# Entry
Amino acid sequence: MTTRHFLSTQDWSRADLDALLAQAAVFKRHKLGRELAGKSIALLFFNPSMRTRTSFELGAFQLGGHAIVLQPGKDAWPVEFEVGTMMDGEAEEHIAEVARVLSRYVDLIGVRAFPKFLDWQVDRQDRIVAAFARHATVPIINMETITHPCQELAHILALQEHFGSRDLRGKKYVLTWTYHPKPLNTAVANSALQIATRFGMDVTLLCPTPEYVLDERYMEFGRRNAAENGGSLRVSHNIGEAYRGAQAIYAKSWGALPYFGRWEEEKPVREKYRNFIVDEAKMALTDNGVFSHCLPLRRNIKATDAVMDSAACIAIDEAENRLHVQKAVMAALVAQPEAGNGQ
Ligand code: CP
# Structure
C-alpha cells in the first residue's frame, strides 16, 4: 500500500472528512491525548505563519508528540527542487535528500510553500509539496500551497458549530473577493470553493470581473462537488445580489490569474474595487449571515472593525479549530498501517 498524504481534501472521501471533523470535535472537548506519543513531525515553512505554526506545534505536543520547525533558506539549507539541474545557485541540497533524510527522523512532514507569483502555469503544478510527497516515505501534510486543506476543515467545523448541525446542505454561501493592497495567493479561495461545494452548500463566487474567477481546476472541482453533494456553484459580479439572503460570507483577497507575473498591470484594476470590503451595510443584506476569514486580515481593508467585532464574526472560532482539525489529521495519518519512517 502507498503512504496516504493530506495534500488536498479532494483526495479524501466525504466519509473520511466527516470522520476527521468528528475526531476534531472530540479533541476540542478533550485537549490531551496520546495519539502521537513517541512520534514527531517536521514543519517546513518556506513562507511566514502565525496560526499554522502555533497550532501544529501545540497540537503535536498535546497529543504526546514533538514538532520541529524548519525554515529552509533561513535556519535550514536552501533546497533545490528541479530534477537533473546543476546546483550552482543558492540551494545547498536537493529535495531528493531532504525528504528522505527527514523521513528517517520523523513520522510526518508538514509543508508550507506559497506560489512564486511569476507564472501561474508553473505555480499551479504545486511542485514543492508534490516533490515532498514523491521523495518522502512518511505522510506529507499541506500547510498551504495553492490550496489550504487544514483551513478548509477548520472552516467547515466552525460553520457546523455555528449552525448547530453537521449537515450544511442548502446553506447559501458566498465566497467574496476583497481588495488588498498586494496580490495574494488564491489558495484559501480555491479551498473555500471546493470544501463549500463538497458539503452541499449553494455557493456563489463573488468577484469584481471575470478575470478574478479562480483556476478552472477548482471551478471544475466545485461544479463536480456540487453535482455530487446536492449543492450548486455560480459566479456573480453583483455585490447586492450575492449578499441578499446569504447565510455565510467568507472573504478572501487574491490576485487575478490572467495578470500573474504582471502585477503592476493588475494593480489599477484591483484598486477600482475597494468597495468589495465586507461592511455592516452588506451584512445587513444577508439572512442573519455569519462572517468568517482565514486570517490574517487587514481591518478596514478587507472587513470593517464593526464586522470583525460583531457577533456574526466566527473567524476566531475558525482559527481555534485549526488546532483541533490538525490534531485529527496528524492522528489519522500516523494511525495508517503503512505509515512509518522506516527505522
Ligand atoms: N490562516 C493561516 O494559515 O494563518 P497563518 O498564515 O498565520 O498560518
The longest helix spans residues 315-335. Residues 49-52, 144, 151, 294-296 surround phosphoric acid mono(formamide)ester (CB under 6 Å). The mean pLDDT is 96.
